[in-house]
Amino acid sequence: MNFIRKSGGRWAAALALAFAALPAAAEDAAASINPINTGDTAWVLVSAALVLMMTPALAFFYGGLVRRKNMLSVLMQCFAVMGLVTVQWVVLGYSLSFGPSLKGLIGDLSWAGLAGVGTAPNPDYAGTIPHQAFMIYQCMFAVITPGLILGAFAERMKFSGYVLFSLLWTTLVYDPVAHWVWGVGGFIRSWGALDFAGGAVVHVNAGAAALAAALFLGKRRGYPAQMSPPHNLPLAVLGAGLLWFGWFGFNGGSALGSGALATTAFVNTHIAAATAGLVWAILDMLANRHATMLGTITGAVAGLVAITPAAGFVTPLGAMGIGVTVALICFGSVMYLKPKFGYDDSLDAFGVHGVGGFWGALATGLWATKAVNPAGADGLFYGGTGLFLVQLKATLVTAVYSFVVSWALLKLTDLLVGLRVSDTDERIGLDLTQHRESAYTLID
Amino acid sequence: MKYIVAIIQPDKLDDVLAALEAKEIHMVTVSNVMGRGRQKGISEVYRSHKEGGSLLKKTKLEIAVNEEFVQPTMEAIQKSALTGNVGDGKIFVLDLGQVMRIRTAETGRLAIG
Known about the structure:
The structure holds two protein chains of two kinds.
Chain A: H1 3-20, H2 26-33, H3 38-65, H4 71-98, E1 101-102, E2 106-107, H5 131-153, H6 159-182, H7 187-191, H8 199-217, H9 233-252, H10 260-288, H11 293-307, H12 316-341, H13 349-367, H14 386-416, H15 423-428, H16 430-435
Antiparallel strand pairs in A: 1-2
Chain B: E1 2-8, H1 13-22, E2 29-35, E3 56-65, H2 70-81, E4 89-95, H3 109-112
């Protein structure tokens, strides 16, 4: 797969078209040979902006859930990856993820610095939009994924450790996994696993890393007996609302064009989020006698996570089934699994993204149908048996790789710059000790 | 009856509450306050945070106690709030004229505990 050859092919085709269209007006000829579809491009660019917004949205979702003394640290960690991962992506991340494959394991460095990644489409990935539109859209996914992990270690990681870990993790975990699943020649892609918008690459991947981080760093001081409740739930609700909104770009945009498939993904995304939020609220009422705001937004996010791999492959009722089941499963993981095993996954990054992502991948193997997307496959409920097993295998490979390598990177970061803040710094809070700022003043 | 007001470092609150619990002093009112002491709000060893006209964030505890609890309360707070740095705070002990429990209209010794 090299871009020069593709590009040459495109020009040959363009020439042929130009000759065929010789009698027509010059403008018509120009239009007919230009493969870029303006509608597709517009939607993918808007989607890229929507996905970018999910990172600050996540910052407020997570930020509202921590204690006031750690608010800025969470916002800063999210904004830091917007800078850090974008730079990494341009320099080498995009090439590692989507560049010409080295044995299906990782992209080579021929697109480093975005060499050859111009405005001409790359038909291997998206034939109707500029290659750079695809690149920047994918950049936003790379940005948010390390952000998701921080929910597991919020309120206790040093900023320097966070920055180093995120950079290493993006390079050695996110980029290879993105290549396996989405890159041309990637080995999981060639198994026929379905991952519409990043259930494995983003959520299972981040979720497994989150579990590794929660276990590696240990509990926060005073967890669970002396934990204050979320310091600002309205901000968390705002963040969750913006995540929901941005997710239309995350899933809808993954069609890489504007049309039937984008609409399918858009509709399914909304149905799953709405269903899972509702079901979680009902579970809250059954288990705790009250429907809670935090439970409802957690459910909605779990629904969004689970529909991510399935969005372009299932029917609306399939999306609803995924919404119901993911709420049940994630509710169980957050309410029972976490207390039982006693790990401090502070903001349920593993409980929602890991578990929800895992379930979403398996659910794709249940509810996917070629009737919705002929490019997909039939899941168990539609008579296909192979897909479910492939989904299981792909997800397990991703989870195990991510967990093991994340653990090693945490260890390495700990040795180099240290991961956990001192006891005193943890008591005072990360805002003051890591950033010398306070989120809130006491006196107007 | 005495009214004890303690100004402490915010990050020592958990320790102070635990120490008070250990002495069976359960009733306490806590608030976030700002102020400055001998260090004039300019700098502390580990917190060079300036805001609100060089005032520093502190936590205030207020506890109404009977005489026999005054000494244990002061000791518990002093030991648990100690970091050894300037800015660790102060404990004030005031005479308390009267107390009434709103629910029962009890007054004095009975109403405190």
